[in-house]
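Repro case for the chain-ordering regression, as requested:
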Amino acid sequence: MARTITDDHILEAALHVLATKGYAGATTREISAAAEINEVTLFRRFGNKKNLLMAAVEQEVENFQAGKIEYTGDLEGDLRRIVQFYYDLMRKRGHVLSMLMSEVPRQPELAEVMQTPMTIVQKITRIIERYQNEGALEKESPVDAFVSLVGPLFLGGIINFLQPQTLQSSLEPDEMVRRYLNGRATK
Amino acid sequence: MARTITDDHILEAALHVLATKGYAGATTREISAAAEINEVTLFRRFGNKKNLLMAAVEQEVENFQAGKIEYTGDLEGDLRRIVQFYYDLMRKRGHVLSMLMSEVPRQPELAEVMQTPMTIVQKITRIIERYQNEGALEKESPVDAFVSLVGPLFLGGIINFLQPQTLQSSLEPDEMVRRYLNGRATK
DNA sequence: TTAGATTGCAAGTACTTACTTGCATAAATT
DNA sequence: AATTTATGCAAGTAAGTACTTGCAATCTAA
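-- result from build under test --
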């Protein structure tokens, strides 16, 4: 018979368990339960746990597409699109992102997979550098300029995750760009 | 005989293994090896793995002391001390911090321990709020103002950890405060 | 020096994990 | 209708885990 269970279905379940339980905590038993299939099917399809998890992460990372991000000459608009990209990413895949960032050092094979997201970072730093060279942005390390732009989103996401009650971050892309360019001191 | 092995010595080893391998990966065998003691000693002292790891984290978190941080009326100076505090924290305990942030959701008992660091955050947001009310800082959610101030340090630390070769963040507290207040647009 | 407490060592228990094997069943292809 | 192929189920293996127990060696305080 042809396959009645799609790889996508399995990988989706695997990624979900991986994001919530971490690499070590993502047991094949739990993944099979989440996908509502037999545990043996996982091994027949993917061979071993490592292959399965890597396939799940690879598929997910492919979707981190920063299509709209490029140099247009409109500094504020470009920055807004960059921030909006990471804003959406944190909303939709925040738990995957933070899982990746904490697991990569322990799971060397994940490092390869991270190259795709890192390509996006490099692309953005090049855009920032161009605006610096034009004189629209103050000169500084482009990597520093990048983490200054989107770093708040990451910490905000983590804090919201840790303390859903009292402390809540509610950053808005437009405001972020405005303050990134003009600062917070009253004039 | 009195103890020849101090609790401190054990907790130090436990924290190191915990920070590098994560909660699940921090096996009692590995901790005992790192402390160069017998595995049984761990259980005789701390009862079980959970108690041991919690004690290690608690002791570490006690040291997150933000003594110098308070309202002085000097906005730039206060911001500098806040940034410097997290700058040092990332340098010295960055791996512990990122381990904590990723493990807390999975290990509910860690949530209690996180209250100490969160107290510091609350203290800082109150200082920021006061400067906002004075009119020295633009009004915005104090939590957002906080994550905007120190968020770049966290993302920078993570990126440096993930990609030690190409992309490197080298933020400096003084510059961070300057740009936090005045922005990056050329005037 | 003696007595009590602390440690190391060897062995073992109960549990979980990744992964395998054999067989029966069900579904799609031919 | 017959054959191929994917799946479920039951059972089992080997390894690692947290944790326990008993005993002998060792060190400190008295």
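Ordering looks correct now. The two ends of chain A are 72 Å apart (CA to CA).
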